Amino acid sequence: SVGDGNGWDDPAKASQYTSFINYARSNGMKVYAVALEDPLYALMTESELDAAFSALISKTKDMFDTYIIDVEIHAINIIYPNGDYLAYTGNEKFYLEKYVQMSKILRSIADEHGVKYIDTIPPQYHAQMIAAGIIGGINQLSSHSINVMAYYSTPEEIMTSISKILEESKIRLVININIAKESWEPYLEAEGISWVIRTLKEQSLPIGIWYADHYLLNLDPTLSLDSTLFVHSTR
């Protein structure tokens, strides 16, 4: 998570970031930047978005070729609860149209700088977009791929939530699950985690795990998962 990129102006922090990235890459990993983590980005003008995203890319392009955008417009009233912005519920059309417009602008900026960008959305955006008259739902987004935050407490809820988006999306999807108990988001228990990962892998779907350090660093001793779940395979 690079935020607005200001940390890269601190030589000590930049050195730490660079060391971590180089270590990860030396072990065969790809490292992406998570950026623009605020719903207000969806309400910005093209010039404001260009200033923010272009500046970030310019600071960090030597480290990253892919930027994950985490603008969760549905959370605007949670992050800004003082009534400064329209309620998301009841005004989905307004907000989702703004999100689609933002996505188009970000793709143009990414193309200009020769980088890729990934959207991060909950699965319900697809149905909400269609209901708002946005033809094709998430297919109107301009990102190179999409992180789908399928954060639910049961495997059945997860698979139901993504069924329509899997069927209709023309954009590459990464299905993300949550395994962190202290998270304010719904999370999966150990048995559910194993079932969901196996099911998604059987469908050759890319998987993201939020707070995977709880398993990898043994921060949650109640998690006892089969290590073969995390073996990467391609078909």
Tally of DSSP helical segments = 8
Proportion of beta-strand residues: 5-15%
What does the average pLDDT come to? 89
User: pLDDT below 50 for ≥5 consecutive residues: which ranges?
Assistant: none
Secondary structure category: alpha/beta
Largest sheet: 6 strands, parallel
Order of helices and strands: HEHEHHEHEHEHEH
Cα radius of gyration in angstroms: 18 Å
Distance between the termini: 30 Å
Helix proportion: 40-55%
Please list the strands of the largest sheet in the order they lie side by side: 1-2-3-4-5-6
Write up this protein:
This protein has 235 residues and is an alpha/beta fold. The chain is 41% helix and 12% strand. The protein has helices spanning 11-26, 46-60, 76-79, 92-113, 124-131, 155-168, 190-202, 213-216; strands at 33-35, 66-69, 116-121, 145-149, 172-178, 207-210. It has a six-stranded parallel sheet, with helices on one face. Strand 4 (145-149), helix 6 (155-168) and strand 5 form a beta-alpha-beta unit. Helix 4 (92-113) packs across helix 5. It is globular and about 50 Å long.
In terms of topology, how is this protein built?
Blueprint: H1 11-26, E1 33-35, H2 46-60, E2 66-69, H3 76-79, H4 92-113, E3 116-121, H5 124-131, E4 145-149, H6 155-168, E5 172-178, H7 190-202, E6 207-210, H8 213-216
Parallel strand pairs: 1-2, 2-3, 3-4, 4-5, 5-6
Helix pairs in contact: 2-4, 4-5
Descriptive terms for the model:
6 strands, six-stranded parallel beta sheet, globular, alpha/beta
